[in-house]
Amino acid sequence: MDAIASARDLVKSYGTGRAARRVLDGVSIDVGRGELVAVLGRSGSGKSTLLHLLGGLDRPDAGTIQVAGVRLEREGEAGLTALRRRHVGFVFQAFHLMPELTGIENVLLPARLAGDGTAAAARVHELIGLLELREAADRLPDALSGGEQQRIALARALVNDPSLVLADEPTGNLDAESAALVLRLLREVAGGERAVVLVTHDREAARHADRVLELREGKLAA
Amino acid sequence: MLGAAVTVSLSLATGFDRAANRAGLADVIARFDPVPLGEVEARTRALANLRAVSYRLELKGVNILAGAQFNGHAKLHGVPSGPRGYALVAGREPLAGADEVVIERGLAESWGLEIGETLEVDGWRILGAALRIVGVAVTPDSVAFPLTNGPRLYSSYDVVRRLAGVEPGTVNLALLWVHDRAQLDLTLAQARAASFGVRELEFVTRDGVRALINQAAGIVIALLVAFSLVALAAAGVMLAASSAAEVQRRLPAIGLLRTLGASPAAVAAGYAAEAALVAAPAALLGLGLGALVVARPTGRLLSALNELGPGPALLLPLAGCLLGTVGLVALAAGLPAWRAASRRPVETLAGGDVASAPRRLRLGAGPAGLGMRLALARPLRTAATIAVLAASASVVLLMLALATLLGRLESDPSTLGKRYSLTVAAPAREAAAIRRVAGVDDAAPRYELPAADSFALGEGFTVVAFNGDHTDYEAPPLASGRRIRGAGEAEVGLGLAQALNLRPGTMLAAQLPSGGETRFRVVGVVRALEAEGRIAYVQPSRLLEAEPGLQPSLAVLLDPGASRDAVAARLSTAGYFAERVGGVTAENSGFLDVLAALLLSLAGVVGLVCVYALVQMLALTAHERRRALAVIRALGASRVQVAAVLAGSGLLVAAIAAAAGIVLERFVVAPAAASLAASYVTLPLAAGPLHMLVVSLGLTVAALVAAAWAGRGAIRRPIVAGLREN
């Protein structure tokens, strides 16, 4: 398999002393190009931690990670920033939109951070149309429904055309109809050179994935 | 900052009275031509209000030499036993008849003289002698050497009389202490009436000395008060904002306490006590450091003014500041806690979003634009920060404008309305020859002499006379009335008009040094800065009638574009000694330098207040919006871009504050300071374009420094921690 992301023997612990807890205990994963991988697990099982490690938001206590040919443990903060900017898109459960920016401005934000705001304008409009966000584009987030906010967040994750999209419980705050739409869109996003890793506790949501892995007791199992 | 401001203001505000009380400064100092003691004693004994008197022999223009250091303007006082009028700060009094001397502190410090060393004295009609230094004194009736050109020395009367070679009992100076200072004018009038036969009689009153010395210090004190208020406002706003943010962060904990039965007052008291515990050592340290930092420059300034520092008396006000600061912090912490605890516990337990609902704004959507929107999401805090920065900027602008004005006063005669650049000590008949020198446009005799009001002898002023129209040479702006046209008319400075209640149509009766009186009808009031506005412009004929020996100097107008130095050199070649005209007398120039340096230092400290206010605001923004900053980092924002977000917030605030500060300074602060500093003249205290540029750039740099500082803290925080924040 041509993996866009692969991790080996990841270990990550939180807390100290008697409160210490190893949430990832030797996790290994490969995500192939065009693949939608779902990681199932109960709340607190370490799903988000795995996603943060794959996206270079956090560092493991042990193990190696490679994303788009970049060995994350060898990179400094600037290297990880560049990786996130070029190769990774995030979708969060709580959307994490900037409340001061309109929908379209939120979508454009990663492109602007990459110094690519003007060139990305055409792509943004394409995404707005594709995700049915024309009405939401000029509104502030507090005037949007949960489904609209999550689609804005998805458009934002895609604006720099990343090779890896990491979605952390993307349907956790949505009603069933909106959740179905978001999952369908994620399914469409995964393809060609791009892979999607979806972490969720919802088995129904995981059914859209090409592959489902379950995180239990710090171990990942198919 | 508060510690620094309190130390300087209190020291300057009370320095004169402290030194005057310790020295037992006389209520009146009378100078006159040397006379036998008996003659003057008979007159003073008749004064009804007199409590004590001390007679002295004062020698002026004494040469003093210590090592390689020389001064030819020293004043040596022969002091008999009795009240001294100066405060001994080291050593002892000279023994009667011994070749010993007490020197003023300014001389000891500037020449590095110590007790036990020897000072050589001599001069015209003065015998040479070597006097051993036995003490150091402060005399608050004038500023200190080297601000005055001649230092003061005190020896026993017998020694000074011997050096001067005059008859025993000869005196030329009397220090008078009165029972009732409110009756001083009457005493002076009585003294003047009884002074027949005593020539060149001049009075200087204690109140006059205080007014003169405090005039300049008053500006500094007013600025310091403004500075303290700005600092307190900055601290208050930032404390309130950070307390509110902290309470917001701990809402669930407050809700829990309320659920467990704590009353809102108990919750608020807990927060206030916690804040006070943190604030007390911090405030103690800050006040102590502030006081220590300015202690040395303030001491130098007090020395220059011949005043004494407050010493332990400073501790009480500083303790008051400590209590006030801790109280302010406790209040700032307790109030938002009380408000939060007063809500229903169920609401408080749920916590709350710290960011208010934003409005749509036409600003950029890049990092800097986002930062501006973050600032505007907190409109009250942003407005308060802008208010603090604008007030600080206006104070800094005022200080810069004042420092520039002081510099111009020192070197630019036009600030005093003088149009001539040189004076030549030569008789009036030489004017024609001087006009022929290349670069000279015109030359005219200028007469100047001291006078006192005939009805209020303590009110001294300067009379200046030109033939014809004096505005060709000196043209202070006319405040009311008209210019003089004849020999019996006078234009008076606003300072003199205020002191003597003069206005066009009233009469000015001038007592001249010879004892004669001349009267002028006041036809105009001018805004003259020279001599604190205690000046009268007249034509010379009446003065010459009363003072036939009055000698003028020649005021020299230059051709447009002519070099003052070149013309002075040509005049020198032609045999004339030309003196450059400054803005103020050379005696004051050093003092103005000290003041200007102090103002610039304070401007720098107020600049630090701006940086502090911006750092606080941006640190709070970064704390409150840590999740937003974590998100943009997750989206690929670099360290610089995170700092750019905060810089956007800071620059928006700085830009509005700079504009507001400029407007505030021009229309409120400068006019207020000008009227406070000198009601007798319109001081040009509006900041110039260069000052505005400096302050705007300073605020920009402050915003960038604050953004870098706050951004550094934000970047150190793990991204995932920010993402998990609710």
Fold and architecture overview:
The complex is a heterodimer of chains A (222) and B (726). Chain A is α/β, with parallel strands linked by helices. Chain A has one domain (3-14, 22-221): P-loop containing nucleotide triphosphate hydrolases (Rossmann fold). Chain A is 34% helix and 27% strand. Chain A contains seven helices and ten strands. In chain A, strands 6-7-8-3-9-10 form a six-stranded mixed beta sheet, with helices on both faces. Chain A has a four-stranded antiparallel beta sheet with strand order 2-1-4-5, covered by helices on one side. In chain A, helix 3 runs parallel beside helix 5 (146-158) and helix 5 packs parallel to helix 6. Chain B has four domains: 1-22 and 209-352, no CATH class; 58-162, no CATH class; 366-411 and 587-726, no CATH class; 416-582, no CATH class. Chain B is 52% helix and 20% strand. In chain B, a hairpin with a 2-residue loop joins strand 2 (50-66) and strand 3. The model of chain B is unreliable at 352-357 (pLDDT under 50). In chain B, the strands form two sheets. In chain B, strands 2-3-8-5-7-6 form a six-stranded mixed β-barrel. A six-stranded mixed barrel of chain B has the order 12-13-18-15-17-16. The radius of gyration of chain B is 32 Å and the shape is elongated. Chain B has 726 residues and is an alpha+beta fold. Chains A and B meet through helix 2 and helix 3 of A and helix 11, helix 18 and helix 21 of B.
List the helices and strands and how they pair.
The complex is a heterodimer of chains A (222) and B (726).
Chain A: E1 3-14, E2 21-32, E3 36-40, H1 47-54, E4 62-67, E5 70-71, H2 77-87, E6 88-91, H3 103-113, H4 117-130, H5 146-158, E7 164-168, H6 176-189, E8 195-200, H7 203-206, E9 211-216, E10 219-221
Parallel strand pairs in A: 3-8, 3-9, 6-7, 7-8
Antiparallel strand pairs in A: 1-2, 1-4, 4-5, 9-10
Chain B: H1 2-23, E1 28-36, H2 37-45, E2 50-66, E3 69-79, E4 87-91, E5 100-104, H3 105-111, E6 118-123, E7 126-138, E8 152-156, H4 157-164, E9 170-178, H5 184-193, E10 202-205, H6 206-249, H7 251-259, H8 264-304, H9 315-341, H10 345-350, H11 367-376, H12 379-411, E11 422-424, H13 431-435, E12 440-453, E13 460-466, E14 478-481, E15 489-493, H14 494-500, E16 507-511, E17 517-526, E18 535-538, H15 541-546, E19 553-558, H16 564-573, E20 578-580, H17 586-624, H18 626-634, H19 639-677, H20 689-716, H21 719-724
Parallel strand pairs in B: 3-8, 5-7, 13-18, 15-17
Antiparallel strand pairs in B: 1-9, 1-10, 2-3, 2-6, 2-9, 4-7, 5-8, 6-7, 11-19, 11-20, 12-13, 12-16, 12-19, 14-17, 15-18, 16-17
Helix pairs in contact in B: 1-6, 1-8, 6-9, 6-12, 6-17, 8-9, 11-19, 12-17, 12-19, 12-20, 17-19, 17-20, 19-20
